[in-house]
């Protein structure tokens, strides 16, 4: 037997490897599509959560903050803000958000300022509801620590 790879062997390796990669990709895609409803808890989306998401988008919060690791790593991760800042208490978290948003921009040395968005109480509560909902998405242990 020769030590050389023939054209037929190379073609078989190429097509066999390509077919294997396509099958693995298809299987992983199928698995992911079936897992998403279980992980996202999309059935618990309320009008307030939708309104909060719109506020998040309209004010480009993702331009500074990350949410489940996606966004700009300029300001803190907010996917776990409900646990980190509200201790898992909805009323306390909404109150925290009201105070925090009203206090902006803070004049702290060596810290960049968060803008004052002039949101209404209802808008801040909607944003808080969106962050509460996001905190309940199964993020598979992301972020790796409570500080994000």
The whole-number mean of residue pLDDT values reads: 90
End-to-end separation in angstroms reads 58 Å
Order of helices and strands: HHEEHHH
Helix content percent band? 40-55%
CATH architecture designation of the largest domain: Orthogonal Bundle
Strand percent estimate: under 5%
The low-pLDDT segments are: none
CA radius of gyration is 23 Å
What does this structure look like?
This protein has 148 residues and is mainly alpha-helical. It is 55% helix and 3% strand. It is built from 5 helices and 2 strands, in the order H-H-E-E-H-H-H. Strand 1 and strand 2 (70-71) form a beta hairpin. It has 2 domains: 1-40; 43-148, Cytochrome Bc1 Complex, Chain D, domain 2.
